[in-house]
Amino acid sequence: MRLRKRRKAQVSGWRVVRRCILFFTAVCVVPVLLVLLVATDHYMRPVRHSTFIHEQLNGKERIIDEPNFLNHNMTVIAKRLETRRRHMKKMCRLLGLDRHGNDTLHRPNPWEFLVDNKHHLIWCNVFKAASTSWMYNFNILAGYSPKFLKKSKVVPMTLARQRYPRPSLQALKKAFNDSISFVIARHPLDRLLSAYRDKLQYALPHTHHRKLGNEIIMKYRYKMKQQDKRLNTQRWPTFPEFVEYLVDSVRNGERLDMHWTPIVEFCTPCMFNFTIIAHTETLQDDQMYLIGMAHLENLIKPEWQNAGKGTTANQINKYYSQLTRSQILQLYHIYSIGYQVFVT
The whole model's pTM is what? Predict the structure, then answer.
């Protein structure tokens, strides 16, 4: 009997000890856990997705919230594009180019327009003004895959015209009512030099432009080589020879090659109410704004293909310094209207 009472007393004693241990454990551990939970609450909450841009300003790095930065940037781009639109309308009015007529400056020309009725997008294709890039994008919108376009031997323009037939003037004007329309302009003299280098200086064998280059050499080389004996060994027209050919073509009323026809005759921009006037100088921003405005971000992206043999802007002084003052003035006379309409 005494043994049982002793065992019960021992059991009761252990129970008391365990309860004390549990109590002290709870008193010590629970506050620590609460502190840890509060401290790590920031990491347990849903994360607000936000990206940042690091910008160097006066040697110091600062962090910019990207959504706010992009919204601000888009506002700046929108204002710049609106300034261009107003400038073009103003100059078209002052030069009398917004009135219909029978010459190439006053007769609406729908020939080079591509109309995407599905995506409500209209583009006037100006050669040597990001034309390769946007021909690619229009072919993507037409349903061609990037893999197919990379492998295809068919000229991109031919592929595009299979899906975007040349519109009539009436159909084009109707499409303008509910579409985003754009044209990409380039400084006339920059575009002219790019055309010369791409189509004549680096012309491929057995092409139309290689043949044209040979004709220019035959007609103008003797006159030019009297000034520079080294021309006997050059197999393509020099830039001054090309300019002489161009000036004579205009003087004789000949139709110019599409790669150096003035934009004001090529797209007759004063005859249409374009939504966006993009420039090659700000092409990345202008494309980004255009694609966003058309809600095509999931289909196409800003492109810059066919950059050519080096940046043309870096070659301006080298080539134009070869021209005489008279040739420079004659070129300005040919391209002055486009300069006044597009260059702000």
Answer: 0.78
